[in-house]
Structure formats: structure tokens, C-alpha cells
Amino acid sequence: MILQNELSRSIRFALMAGFALVASSAFAQTDADNTEEAIESLDEIVVTGSRIKSQTFTASSPVLEIGAEDVKASGATRVEDLVNQYPQLTPSFDSQQNNPSVGYATVSLRNLGAERTLTLINGRRLPPGATGELRDISIIPSALISRVDVLTGGASAVYGSDAVAGVVNFVLDTEFEGFSVSGGYSAYQHKNDNEFIQGRIAARGFPFADGDSGFDGAARDIALSFGSSFGEGQGHAMGWLTYRENDALFHGQRDYSGCALDAAGANCGGSGTNAFGNFFVNGAQANINQTTGRWQRGFGPRYNYAPPNFYQRPDERFTGGTSIKFTVNDYFNPYMEAMFVNRTSSVQIAESGTFFAQDLSIPCNSPLLGTACSDLGINPASGPVSVYVGRRNIEGGPRRTDTEDTSYRMAVGTEGTISDNWSYDASLLFARTANDLQGFNDFLSSRVADALLGCLPGSFAGCLPYDVWRPGRVTSAAANALAGVSFNKTSTEMQNFNAFVTGDTGFAFGSADGQNVSVVAGFETRREKFSFIADNDSALGNFAGAGAASPPVSGITEVKELFFESAVPIYAGGDLINSFNLDLGYRLSDYETSGNTNTFKVGFTSEVGMFRLRGGFNRAIRAPGINDLFSPQNIGLFAGSDPCAGATPVFSAAQCARTGVSAAQYRNVPESPAGQNNQLSGGNPNLTPEEADTYTLGFAVQPIDNLTVALDYYDIRIDKTITAIGAPTVLGQCALTGNPLLCSLINRNPRTGDIWVGTVGFVENLTNNFGELSTKGIDLNINHGMDMFGGRLNTSFIANQVLDYQSKPLPGVDDSIVIRCEGRINPDCGALHDFRAISSVGFSRDFYSVNLRLRHFGSLDYRNDDGALTTDGLLVANGGGIGSYTYLDLSGSVTLLDNIDWSLGINNIGDKEPPLVGVDNAVNANAPRGYDQLGRFIFTRVSVAF
Questions:
Q1: What's the whole-model pTM score?
Q2: Domains and CATH numbers, the chain
Q3: Does 867 have pLDDT greater than 90?
Q4: CA dihedral angle for residue 532, residue 538, residue 539, residue 541, rounded to 10 degrees
């Protein structure tokens, strides 16, 4: 069956490729242009993925180019909203991530993680973000992007650590001339007519959005760009200033996110920490009847925590920057780049509460319990009753975290010639990010027990009884007395010195027709610093809804590197084989924390008839970052259900016994209503770099004028991955295999068997170098252009077919554990589409242009090779997964006057809402990752140039 599926996917990809090729060819014309003359007229260029300057050098690794026109057609004012739509990149959109959220935008190639994707601006590194490992791309001005080069293969030999999956290089228009100002407005709109979810919400008696939403989640921006030459043409300076603001949009503003679905996707779920109070009394669930005041078995209604959550976080950002260069003479050409971003944003989630965190010992005759013991059949002679309380702070309002980031990046350097055939470049890059965060409306855990027990002598100053023991007795004043304000400060710094020489060796192989060998040799040092400090309550983990302690963290990583590259022409000039060239590279890295490591590449390019063949092997690394090494180990939450909890566990009694569930506890383990459980996570100072081997093989061809086709195969294999096993994997694989290492990581509450009440039960999920991760697939890129109807028609088709994506979380310990994810949706994999494509047709003439774009997501299957950890009813009812999705976008622009352009567009014309899944498979609201989350997107922009 698996073999048949792989074959069918390959056939489908080949058919689509053939169709796209035929469709593009149908528009072809045969007017000739002199390609050789065009090449000779170009200045020497640097291809992303190499530092060798050449008019004819083409990288052996495939490079996807996203042009400035693509930025305009997409309506994107956030850089992440542009690049993350392309099939080679993971479709993640930061502004629509709320809990959890990194807090800023990143890019991730091949679904291998942003930490394995090296992100550059004009060939130099971006500043580290507030997390340290992940780079923040919000500093990049979308209005000044000349192009984005996406190199989809390892490139550590050229650029150093992190280029495991590849490189995303944002190239700015540093030659911009004149002055321009542009302003834009965009918003979402949705019809809110999902009968399925509305019926579920209505059954719970919750309000929900119904009918046309109107325009919401609006964004406004303005961008100023300016540039000019100076010094009689010897110098050039350009700069920019931008401002952008977008409004918050809440889960409650869409019907399909108006409640959180349960794991089965059948009904509105919610939290056991509710508005009235739920209790564990001697390990059994209980609640108080809100009419009679009597105690009764079982939990009361779950709390609908969804509506106050941000679906789109509010965001305000300023960016600015400049690029200045000056030619003094052939030998000395100084340059400078400087840029900054100041961004404020917020995260908002449901109200805080007591969260079953305090084990209260209360005698049966206490006035707090009233008739609890008699109502629940507890013998008063058995001693004090153990009580856990879960109640929402509905009086205090949602928890909100406000954050402000300020990031600077400055590069200064000089370049020039050393001789006729040799040149140099030396630069110093400094970057710094400061993050300030404040949190509001969260309870202080150290105060909760005092207030629940009625503020007995010795309680905290200002204590007011938090009377959950009788209906309607909690006051706003008592709730406010429990709340605190948190704050923390994070600072990251990077210093990067890079110097290299490049040139023509003067040596050529006899078969190379006089084409000489070119080389690059250089030295690089990089130092990154991270520091984090929080208020005392946060440092001690005293905030009830924070999930973990946040003690101070600081550290420094340093590396010194030597690198070498060479372009080696081997053969030139034949009837069939026109050329064969080698692309070589080597880098020696000395890390202060983990010692020496080597990276290298061997690639080739060859012209055979009309085909340009390319391929290669890259050894790449990712060195452990500050958080990987030094983040504190503490107990927090993970999203996912316990397969041994509830009255009908997923696993058998024997399987659950392996995870620590006793025979008496089986079918009686309390199930977390919110689908969240405890895990122990944190860093590891003994980590070593990941190692990756990347293989690529492909070709580019121009079968007719104006039509280019590129097809590339890639195979990426990562060893010693810096990762945690994953708490759901630990639970599931322990139950299925009985692996002693995995089972030793599960610590259940000895009384109840749960892993979510308080902090007694948890799954150990620490970072280490013990995983393997691999993926392979095919990229297709077709572009065609032709003159017609007095204008220009351009078509493009970009697709990615994932042939295989699998991880081995415990190689050498249990090689039978293999998690395959291509084309699947489940708790282990999330949602990983095995096929994605983006296609566009654009026509421009004189004063107007129009562009039609299709974005396609392949279908997803809920299967799991090692035993299904979910039986998501929505997926099963939909034929076993999620069908394919296609979005249609339309945009156009018109020149009103010689210097005024107006553009207008609609993305997701059909207003498709994302597919709905149960809580175990959802990333945001009730939807998996990647799909348009908020409905139809309308945008417009006016630009004036002088």
C-alpha cells in the first residue's frame, strides 16, 4: 500500500509537470534574442550559494528566485506572508500564531525548522531574534526587495552553521534612485456560515459569529524610499522608512474558531478550569451545583476558552535603514549597511485561574467544604480531604502579554581589487536585539492557597478570601488581589567578522579551453551572546498560567572559521557536451563549546545540448544555540492528549501499564479537558553540532525561446539532531513497544495516574543529540514569457513533491521507531503536505497589469505507521484525512499618472475557510498549519514616485 501511494504521488507529480510544460509551451514564440551578448553585457555577479564572482558561473545547488513583481502581486506587506507561501518553505504565518508564539517572523525550508534555515540580507546574516536561535525577518523592508533567492540545499561550507536545509537570501535594491512613497490598506472578510461548528457551539449555549464579518483584522502601512548617487557618480546612497500597523482579530470573530473542538472533533471541548469551579476531592472529580449549592460527582461544564484568544495578533512596527557605498579607487571601496526595526505586539489568551495546582488539605468539618463529605460519601473519620481547585478568573479578564522588540543591524566594510585578477572583501557586522515583555492578569500561585483557605493568619498581605466554595461568592477585588504583573528582558548580540580574497588562479586544465580555475579563501569569526532576566515571581515559576519557571539565562557561543571555495572548469567545447565544471568548498570551524567540525561540498554543472545539468553533495552542520545549550529545565505544557486517560483509553490496559497506569487506575485516569499535559523540558550544555548530508541532482533547460524549465531532486539526511523526542511520541511508543528508556521518562501522579494535575505528573522531554531526520523530494520550476496583444504575458509554475519525510527519534536505542510524515496529519507530524504548488499568469501592457495566481495544497492522510495516536472523527468522517485545497488570488495595477500607481487585489477569492480538526491535530484555533486562516484577504496600495 505504501509503495502504491509513493508510485501514485510520483505519477501525479510527473503528469502535473508535463501538463504545466505543455501549457506553457502553448504560449511560446520563436523570436530570438542573443543570449551570449546579453551575458557579456552583465557585470560580474555573485550567485547565492557561492562567493565566486563570475559572468558565467551557475551554482550547482538549485536556486528559486522570487522577484519584486511577486511581492507586489501578493499584496504582502509582511515579508513572511510572501515567502512562506512558496512550496519549498513551511507555510507558517507569525501574526496568526498566538499560543504558543515565537513572537516574530521566521522562515523554514523543507519543514526542517527555522533553526536549520540560514537567513541572509544581501549575503550577510540577520540579527538573532529574542529566542537566540531563530532569526527575525521582520527587519526586512518588503517595499525594497529586489529579489529573494531560495537556495534549497546545504550551504554550510559557504556560509557556516545553520544552512542545513538551505539559505534564504533577501536582496535589497541598493541601487534605488529617486524618491517614492506608498501607502497600503488590507483587511479580511468572511461569511461565517459553517453549519457544523455553529451547531456544536449552539449545543453548548455559547454565542458565535454569524453572517458577514465585514472588514476586520485591518492593516495599514506607509513606506518611504529614497536614493541618489553622489560624488560625481563615485558614491551611491539609499534609504527607507516604513510604518505598519495591524488590528487584532479574535477567535470569537470566526464561527469555525468560536470554540475549541475536542480530540474527536465531534463537540466543543474546553477546559476543566471553568467559570464556577471544578474540583478533585480525594482524587475524584466533583463540582458544586450552582442552584442548590450541593456537591456532586463529576466535572461541571467545560470552559470555552477560545473566544478571547487572538487569531491575528495586533502589531505595530517601524523600520528604517540605509545602504551607502563609495568608490575611492580600484583598491578601496568602502560600504555600509544599517537597518533597524521597532515592533510592539501582544499575545492574548483565556483568563488565568487556579488550574488544579494546589493540593489543599481540609478537614471535613471545615466551613469551607460545607456538606462536601456527606454529599460525596466521604468518611470524616478518614482524615483531612485532599482538594484541588480549578476555577477561571472571569472577573479579571484574559491574560495579555505585551512585547516590544528593537533590533539593530550594521555592516561596515570595504572591497576592491588586489591585482587584475584578484579582489577582496572584508566586513564587520554587528547586530543587537532587545526584547521587553510585560504580562497582565495572571494569578500568583503563592497567593492562591491562602485565598482559597479564607486568608487564615499568616496569609499574604492584602489577602481577600477567594470563595469558590459557594456559588456567586468570588469578588473582583479578591481576584485582583491574586493577580500580578510579570516582566522579562531578553538581549541578543552578534558580532561577525568576515574577510576573503577571490580571483583567477591563472591555471586551466587543457580540456577547459582556456577557462581558468577560480578560488575564494577567507577567514570568519562569529560571536553570539544571549541574556534573559525576569521578575522574581516569573523566575520562580510563581505565575499560575505561565507553565514553567523562568530563571535567568545567559551564555556566549563563539566560532573561528577558515573557508575555501573553487570553481574548476574541467571541460569545454564539444558538440554534445559543451562544458563540465566542478564546484568545491571546504570550511573548518572551531566552536568554543563543542570543538572542531568540518563542512564541505562537491558539486558539478554541465551543459549537454540544451540541458544544463547540476548536482552535488554538501556536508552541513547546525551548531547548538544559546537556548539549546543553556535554557533551564522546568515543567511546562505540551499540546496533546494522554492516550491512557479517560473512560475509553486509546490503549489497552497492558499497554497503559507500560506507561505507569495501574490496573485500578485504568479507565479512571482524569483526562485533561484542554488537551494539555505536563512535560519537563530544557537545554543541555553537552550538545554537539548536528551533521547533515545533502544530495541534489537536477537540470535546467530552455527548449524554446522564453521558456525555462528546472527540475531538481533533493535528499537531506540529518544525524545527531538537536531536539527533544516529543512527549506524544514518548507516551505512544512506550505503550506500543515497552521500550524501557521511553517508559522511564513518564512520571504519573501516583494517586490518580494523570500527567496534568499540578506538577506531580509529567513526561521528561529534554533536548539531546539523539535523533535522525530525513527528507527527499522533487522541485519543479517553469517560467514562460511572450509578447501578445500589445503587451507581455508571463506564466510560472512552481511545485514541490515530498517523496519521503521521516524521523527516527531513538536511533541505536530502538531503530524500529520510525515516524513517517509525508502527506500525513497526526500528533507526531502536524500537517505535512506531500504536494504543494503555486502558479501564476500575468499580463501587462502600457499602463496596467493583471495577475491571476493559484495556490495548491495536496491532500493529507491521518495514518500513522506506528499505531494511530488519534482517531480524529473529523478526519475519519472526511474519508480518512483532508482533501486537496486550491486558493485563487487576483490582483491588478494601473498607472494613473506618469508617477502614480494604484494596485488592488483579493487573495482567497472563494473565501475558503481552513479545514477543521480535533484539538490534537490543530495548530491554531481548530485548524492545522498552512491554510488561509481568516478568510478572504483584500488589499490595495497607492505608490507615488518622484
A1: 0.86
A2: 2-269+304-354+391-640+675-726+765-945 (2.40.170.20)
A3: no
A4: -130
